[in-house]
Design a protein that fits this description.
Length: 333
């Protein structure tokens, strides 16, 4: 079995759909965790541009720019292109070939029973307008993971059904053709749904996001009208920090201030305006290194191009080795 991990560390694969600049929810839900995982695993981090097409085919012309913005956010946040492989999915054609072969191992009925798929149909109000590509999304996701013979995948709990499909396909392939693929284990990311400026889950579609690369002025402008305790009508009213988005942000970005913030909110010692301004100053400082690194990469497009090209070259080499194993096991070629 080919391995993409020369130092024998276990391999992980994860990816993000390129929909533009990343926001605080993206950072807390995935990116901050990826940065920590770099020290323990051989990491492959993928811009999942083909996956965007399942629900945003009409915006295909935005994918290239959005992919570069994502790379800038990744590099600014601290993903290391010398220690991890950062690449673009569509630049590694082996994903498509493995996707085709894996599609032979799973039934339509099994894909239709996927609970995540059912939720997407409901949430996106798709009704009967479901593309074959959308239905087969988990198969392409499996190909992404198995192309690098990954041992583990960092996922939120909502993605566990998708990963179980990958494990099923790995087992079936190995049973039919011999041991080629590990069954990837989930590295479950423990985080609550991160609140946006309106108190609901932070999401671009909701228009309630704050970008991780936002300027100090943009941060203040976004935080000022943000959702707080709706029952706190006057400055002198005691507040309930547990229902306040601002307090959740304190817990993540200024944890050393969280306890005092909660106490002063409950006793009405601190008003919401002062609380938000203090948070804005702290978050501005928290993300300052990210903004500086991001700006350096943005100012040197040639260097960014080289990083992307190098990552794609590394990914192609590993995926090509996997496909040699697959061809040999299946008697193809």
């Amino acid at each position: 079995m080919t391995t993409g991990s020369p130092d024998k560390r276990k391999i992980i694969l994860s990816g993000m759909r390129p929909t533009g600049r990343l926001h605080w929810g993206n950072y807390t839900g995935a990116l901050a965790n990826w940065i920590e995982l770099q020290d323990e695993y051989t990491c492959y981090f993928m811009v999942a541009d083909w996956h965007v097409l399942t629900t945003a085919l009409d915006r295909a012309d935005q994918i290239q720019l959005n992919s570069r913005e994502m790379f800038l956010d990744w590099l600014g946040a601290g993903l290391d292109p010398d220690g991890s492989v950062l690449f673009i999915q569509s630049q590694v054609k082996e994903h498509a070939e493995l996707y085709l072969l894996l599609a032979m191992l799973i039934s339509m009925g099994r894909l239709e029973r996927n609970p995540t798929f059912k939720e997407q149909i409901r949430d996106l109000n798709l009704g009967g307008e479901i593309s074959y590509g959308h239905l087969g999304y988990p198969v392409l996701q499996a190909a992404d993971i198995m192309a690098y013979q990954a041992h583990a995948v960092p996922v939120g709990e909502d993605q566990l059904p998708h990963l179980e499909l990958t494990r099923e396909m790995a087992r079936k392939f190995n049973r039919l053709f011999g041991e080629v693929f590990p069954e990837p284990e989930p590295l479950v990311t423990k985080f609550a749904r991160f609140p946006g400026t309106d108190g609901k889950r932070m999401s671009k579609s909701m228009g309630n996001t704050i970008e991780i690369a936002a300027s100090p002025e943009e941060i203040v402008a976004k935080i000022k009208p943000a959702f707080t305790d709706p029952a706190r009508l006057r400055r002198s009213d005691p507040g309930n920090p547990e229902v306040c988005a601002v307090y959740t942000w304190y817990q993540k970005f200024l944890p050393q201030e969280a306890e005092a913030t909660a106490s002063e909110c409950r006793s009405a010692q601190r008003g919401c305006v002062d609380c938000k301004l203090k948070l804005a100053a702290g978050v501005t400082e928290y993300f300052a290194p990210l903004r500086e690194r991001r700006a350096e990469y943005a100012a040197d497009p040639k260097k960014l191009d080289e990083i992307i090209a190098h990552g794609c070259q590394q990914a192609r080499a590993v995926a090509a080795g996997t496909m040699e194993d697959v061809h040999g096991a299946m008697g193809l070629g």
